[in-house]
Write a structure and sequence with these properties.
This protein is mostly helical. It is globular.
Length: 367
């Protein structure tokens, strides 16, 4: 479970509260539950493909399934490129926020520099050594999450005992359509449950299916609890939501939480970016049938991510990453449909595909 959990918790818990609060205000918990519901059903499709599509792909006797799988591999490379940019953009926001230097230019500049370092290290053959950071980053992330959940819970209880109610953020002045399309742009925060799909050389089918399913049970439950416990503290932001607003929420509970949170953000985002760079370069090598080596794959991924670093705010990159992964998941839905003969399952796959098409076409950033 460590691989999917590291991806799922990679950046989501750092940004989900300000994104949802800015989108739907007091209805953030319901929005998080809706995102979790859709994500779990997407995960079910990935697990279906581990069980049913992989044998068909191995046999190679269904051209349509093979074509859809290859297209999804290309889409996954593009999604990884965007996620690398996103992870380092969030790292920059938290590190610079600690020094009150988190301007748009500074974040883009630091993001470019860090991605440049990862690219150079990858091209010189040292990126596999950095991959070992992933598990330690996960342990630190879970520890900080536990501290935040405990601190938020104590703060909420004390606040309720003092005032007899929970304070909630105001409902933003947005139309229903704006709220729905902004929430659609948060799909990236629960991405990662698909990683067991690509660990077939290390784990058997049912181990990977259980890892994917239980990583979703654990992470989605924590996400809903995290948003619910953080929401009564959100009014301290006075309606000003930034990508590193979690620092202010943590400081409102205890000043002792701020620096560990920044450390966890830096380590987790860096390790997640390394992991996605490795995965993207490996996928590029496979997609190009080894015409492009991993070394040049690192250069292409890094260069594209550095260009993206200057395209907008962290919230813009979040929405773009959600759309990129929606395309990949949509293609995985089509793979599932191509190998499934159960009409009830096909109906479910079609509904999930429709939701993903909506995210792909209409997801917008908070702003």
């Amino acid at each position: 479970m460590s691989t999917p959990l590291a991806s799922i918790f990679g950046s989501g818990f750092l940004v989900i509260v300000p994104v949802l609060a800015s989108s739907v205000g007091p209805y953030s918990v319901w929005a998080m539950m809706a995102v979790a519901f859709v994500a779990f059903h997407i995960g079910a499709i990935v697990r279906h493909n581990i069980l049913c599509a992989e044998p068909v792909l191995a046999a190679g006797n269904q051209p349509v399934t093979l074509m859809l799988e290859r297209l999804s591999d290309v889409a996954l490379v593009a999604a990884y490129v965007v996620s690398v940019c996103l992870y380092i953009h969030i790292l920059s926001a938290f590190v610079l926020g600690a020094f009150e230097l988190d301007s748009g230019f500074n974040k883009s500049l630091l993001t470019t520099l860090v991605i440049g370092v990862i690219t150079v290290v990858g091209m010189t053959g040292g990126l596999q050594l950095l991959e070992r950071l992933e598990r330690w980053a996960l342990y630190l992330t879970i520890l900080i999450l536990a501290l935040l959940l405990g601190g938020f819970a104590v703060h909420d209880v004390n606040s309720f005992l003092d005032t007899g109610r929970f304070a909630l953020p105001n409902l933003p002045q947005r139309s229903g359509w704006e709220m729905v399309t902004m929430v659609a742009g948060t799909l990236i925060v629960v991405q990662g449950f698909e990683t067991p799909r690509y660990l077939g050389s290390r784990f058997d089918t049912w181990t990977r299916i259980r890892a994917s399913r239980w990583s979703q049970y654990v992470s989605l439950a924590i996400y809903v609890a995290f948003v619910a416990l953080a929401l009564p503290i959100v009014p301290v932001l006075s309606g000003h939501y930034a990508d590193n607003s979690l620092i202010r929420l943590a400081a409102a509970v205890s000043v002792l939480l701020s620096m560990p949170l920044i450390l966890a953000a830096g380590l987790s985002q860096f390790s997640a970016a390394v992991a996605d760079t490795l995965a993207a370069a490996a996928n590029l090598e496979e997609v190009t049938r080894r015409r492009m080596t991993q070394r040049w794959g690192y250069l292409l991924v890094g260069a594209a991510a550095m260009v993206l670093a200057w395209t907008g705010s962290t919230f813009t990159v979040i929405a773009l990453a959600s759309r990129a992964f929606a395309l990949y998941y949509l293609l995985q839905c089509l793979v599932a449909l191509s190998v499934c003969n159960n009409h009830r399952e096909r109906a479910r796959f079609f509904l999930v595909a429709s939701a993903l098409a909506f995210v792909l076409l209409f997801a917008v950033p908070v702003g």
